[in-house]
Amino acid sequence: MIKKIIFTMVRLFFGLFLYAFGLVLAINSNIGLSPWDVFGQGISKTLNITMGHATISVGFVIILINFILGERIGWGTIFNMIFIGEFMDILMLNRLIPISTNFVVSVIMMFCGVMVIALATFLYIGAELGAGPRDGLMVALTRKTNKSVRVVRSIIEIGALVVGYLLGGFVGIGTLIMAFSVGHAVQFIFKLFKFDVSKVKHRYIVDDILFVKNNLY
C-alpha cells in the first residue's frame, strides 16, 4: 500500500515537472504560446507577476469555477494548480532553458515541448488523482451545456487566446503549432503506452475524507 502511494506520487510529480518543462520549452522557443499560455502571459504582464504565479492564479480561479459547477476535485488537481507554476518559475527564473533566436531551433524546441507535454499528460492523468483544472473545466462545461467536447474546448481556448492577446500575450506561429498538435501528440503517446483514458478511475479528495471518516467512526 505504502509502495503504491509512493509510486503514484512520484509519477504525479514527475509528470507535473515534465509538463512545466514542456511549457517552458514552448515559451522559450520564442515563436508563440499556447492559448492558455497567451492568457497566462497576459495576466503576468497585467499584474506584474511571474509566469508561474500567473499560471497558479488562473488555475485557482478555474478550480473555484469547477467546484461551483459541481466538478469533483482531486489532490492531483490541486498539485497541478500549484506545482506546474512553481516548476515553471524555477526553470524560467534560473534560465535553465535558453531562449531561442534561431527559427529552425525554435520550431524544434516547440515540437519537443509538445511531445514532452503529451508524455507528461500521460503520467499525471495515469496517477488517477484527478484531472487538471483546465481539463476539469472542459468536462464541467460539457456536462452543463450538453455540447460536444470539441466545441466546448474550442470555445474555452479561443476565449483564453483572445483575452490573453488583448492583455499583451504573445501570439505567433507557435500558437498554431500548439493548438493543432498537442491533441495529436497526446493521442500518439496514449497509443504508444496502450493507455485507455476512459478506464482511468480518479480518486478525489472527498473519497479520502469519507475514508478517514469511516475509519474514525
Automatic annotation (TrEMBL):
UniProt entry tagged with the keyword Oxidoreductase: no
Residue ranges of the TM segments: 12-31, 51-70, 77-97, 103-127
Keywords, sorted A to Z: Membrane, Transmembrane, Transmembrane helix
Cell membrane in keyword set: no
Pfam families from the UniProt entry: DUF6198
InterPro entries: YczE/YyaS-like
Protein name, entry field: Membrane protein YczE
UniProt source species: Clostridium fungisolvens
